[in-house]
Amino acid sequence: MRKKLLIALMAGALAVSALAGCSNSSKTTDSVKSTVDTNLSEGEKTDEDNAVKSSDVLKDGKNDVLTIVFPGNSSAPASLEQVEAAITEIAQETMDCTVKINIFEWGVFEEQSNLILSSGEDVDLLFKWNNTAKQAGNSGQVIDISGLVPVYARETNDLMGKYIEGCYVGDALYGIPSYHEFATRAGLICSTELLEKLEINADDIKTWDDVDEVLAKAKEAFPDKDVLVPAEAMAGMLNHYNDGVFDAVQNAMVGIYTDGRDGLTAHNIYATDEFKEAAERAYAWNQKGYFIADSTTITDTRQTFLRAGSCFGYIGIVHPGTKTQESINAGADVSVIPITKQGSGTSNIASGQFVIPTGSPTPEKAVALLNLICSNADVQNLLHYGIEGVDYEVKAEGVAGYPNGIDASNVGWTNETWLTGNASIGLAWETDPVDVWEQYNKYNSEANFAPSYGFAFDSGNVKNEITAVQNVLDKYTAMIYSGMADPAESIPAFLGELDSAGMQKIVDEVQAQLDAWSKAQ
Predict the structure, then answer these.
(1) What's the pLDDT at 521?
(2) Distance CA 333, CA 308 (A)
(3) Which end of the chain is more exposed for a tag (fewer CB within 10 A), N or C?
């Protein structure tokens, strides 16, 4: 029942968000919230007692510093202090606080976020990606906010409640999902300038074999450039090759086919034909010289290479906003070429979330700040584009764009859509169509939805095995996805170590919980 309800309501929630896609005022958010409220039964509305309780806690006369931590391309953008001040001014209308933002560059973000959680550092909002919020919750490193959201984040619950449902682990809620493409697919993202020099029409590239031919031509035509760079630092060159194929119900370990080919059957992802194909493709491409040297150790971002004009492109995630996102962050026009069919599952909904670490001294204010981020258009535009009139301006079409004299090379603030909480309530960028959020809706609705959609795996019974398996993944996956070892030898060794680490026990536990979940629907 829960799975069917979530799927049925997903398109509706997307459509509501799309209505706010080009607003530059919190009035639009209020209008959308009003529309949602009109359709809610009285039993679903937060009562007035909660509003009174919220006000008493938030306006307590204590000017608490609320720290937000997320990844980015620069740890010290020029407009950082102005953005902090502007968000603080808005937040102080409803709570006593000062907002601080701490951005870690991508190459060090994972390590720093883990240190924040393990040390109990005083951080109030932390972005967790790659489906790690659940793991942090199970480890007691982040707070269960299921009881706080109805009181301190009613507006966000109204706007995004159907997605929030997909982030529950049993009765616990460890984070709020950041609005983004809720399906995933893989493709080639490359320099438009270089693709045009090759006289290749992007529409003619349909398969990985087609991509192979393009890369061969790029290597020959541009011998002074790297053909492909990693999508993420130290993750491997083709780690996105099978995006959309599995609903990874346990962090890139165990998956269910999104096309439902064998129903609710749990698989060790690395024992599938799809992984073998990715490994063989990576090995072949590395042998052909398509991959940058030292691909598993470099920490520079893909945008750095594209901005410098030193590479042709990368294999990564493709969605309706990829072209604008990458063009802005790289400061260069890119072409986006989808290859795989988009697929979705619970792991896609819960893949990126803002969580409240246990070190936060004021979790109520932290949730209230997250509510502003996800429901206030002015805050959203600040986090996404920076300061109006400095980093962006509102164009005649009602979209955001660079002011005169400003471009990606000198702008004081940049951010990615999927890191801002709920970009659908803010402005679209000038290179996006005005109906970009309707396009997101279409993209999501046409995806293969895994039969496991709505299922949340409780890893409590296999914590030790997950830790052991993760150590094996850390040893092998980046190496294999980067083609640094012959898969005829590396895959058997990899699977053997996974088996010794307890992978089959994890698969069996997932299967048992899937079977019980299915019977309860």
Answers:
(1) 80
(2) 12
(3) N
Which of 437, 369, 367, 426 minimizes the C-alpha distance to 182? 437
pLDDT, tens digit, 9 for 90 and up, residues 150-185? 999 999 999 888 789 888 888 899 999 998 888 999
Task: Assess contact for 419 and 475: CB atoms under 8 A.
Answer: no
How crowded is residue 199: how many other Cβ atoms within 10 Å of its Cβ?
8
Task: Evaluate if residue 43 carries a pLDDT over 50.
Answer: no
CA distance 208 to 241: 9
Which is nearest to 74 in space by CA: 506, 413, 477?
413
Got the DSSP string for 244-273?
TTEEEEETTTEEEETT-TTSS--EEGGGSH
| pLDDT band of 437, cuts 50, 70, 90 | confident
Phi-psi group of 230: left, alpha or beta (phi > 0 → left; psi -120 to 50 → alpha; rest → beta): beta
Q: What residues contact residue 501 under an 8 Å CB cut-off, 6+ apart?
A: 465, 468, 469, 471, 472
Q: Cα separation of 142 and 22, whole Å?
A: 33
What are the backbone angles phi and psi of residue 22, rounded to the nearest 5°?
-120, 20
Could you identify the residue written with the tokens 């590239």? 205
Residue 415's Cβ-count burial label (10 Å; 0-12, 13-18, 19+) is buried
Q: What is the pLDDT of residues 223-267, one digit of tens each?
A: 999 999 999 888 899 999 999 999 998 888 999 999 999 999 999
Q: 54-85 in b/e burial notation, b at 16+ Cβ within 10 A?
A: beeebeeeeebebbbbbbbbeeebebbebbbe
Predicted local confidence at residue 47, as pLDDT: 52
Tokens 């001040």 found at: 85
Give the whole-angstrom CA distance, residue 438 versus residue 442. 6
Separation between Cα atoms, residue 357 and residue 366, nearest integer Å: 10
Q: What is the mean pLDDT of residues 42-66?
A: 75
Contact partners, residue 512, CB within 8 Å, separation at least 6 = none
pLDDT tens by residue, 337-365: 999 999 998 888 888 999 999 999 999 99
Cα separation of 335 and 313, whole Å? Answer: 9
Residue 7 has pLDDT above 60, yes or no: no
